[in-house]
Structure formats: C-alpha cells, structure tokens
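Long-time lurker. I teach an intro course on protein structure, and each term I like to show students one example going from raw sequence to a predicted 3D structure in token notation. This year I'd like something fresh instead of my usual example. Would anyone be willing to generate the tokens for the chain below so I can use it in lecture? Attribution to the forum is fine with me.
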Amino acid sequence: MQPTSQTPAQVQRAPKPEPVPLEQVLRVAELAQLELREDEQQEMLRDLNAILGHVAQLNELDTRDVPPMTQVNVVMHSDAGHADAVDAGNVLRDDSVRPSLDRAKVMATAPETDGTYFKVPKVIER
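-- Reply from a regular --
Happy to contribute to a lecture. Here you go:
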C-alpha cells in the first residue's frame, strides 16, 4: 500500500455500518444449523452489531505510515526502549513430498469402509 499525501483531516472516514437486522442473524443461524432461543437471538444481534461497530472504529484509524505485515510469525522485542520487529525465522517445516500411508493398510484397520472412504454414522440431521 502506497502512502498518500493526504493530511489526517483529509482522510475519509468509513461510514458507520448499518445495524444488522434480526432477519440476517436468523439466516446466519439457520446456515450454521443453530437453534437460537428468543433471548439468544437478541444477544447475538447486539453482539454482532457491537463487533461491526468496533471494526468501523478500527477502519477510522490512519494507517498510512504503518508498514504492511508480510509474515505473522514475527517476534517483538525491546531494544534500547524501542519495540522492533525481528523475524524469528521460518518456524514451519519445509514443504516437501513425503510418502503417505498405504490406503489398503489403513482401510484394512477401519471398522467399516467401502475401500476408498471410511463409513461413519450419520451425525447431522436435517
């Protein structure tokens, strides 16, 4: 992201989000297969609108001089009173091709299988 030449007074503020209507909360609950009691519906509505309000406040912050993060595995340390970001190195293993389990041996140990997939009891009712 390139810094702009706008002064803080010129930075456009994000409009306050419209409140989420109860119908949308109920639709999300339905998609997530959640059954919400009436009091839970109102609580979810209040919480969701509060979260969106906080996000709107964050969007108002002037982040032009904040460098974008490219890695999330950065360690913060204090050096002479200043917080500096220091790359801790790659803490993840190299992505390399390795042999996987033999399907026939795995399926032979399964309680029930069709030879390709494990068969399990149905757990989601609609």
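Some talking points for your students: Residues 77-82 have pLDDT under 50 and may be disordered. The radius of gyration is 25 Å.
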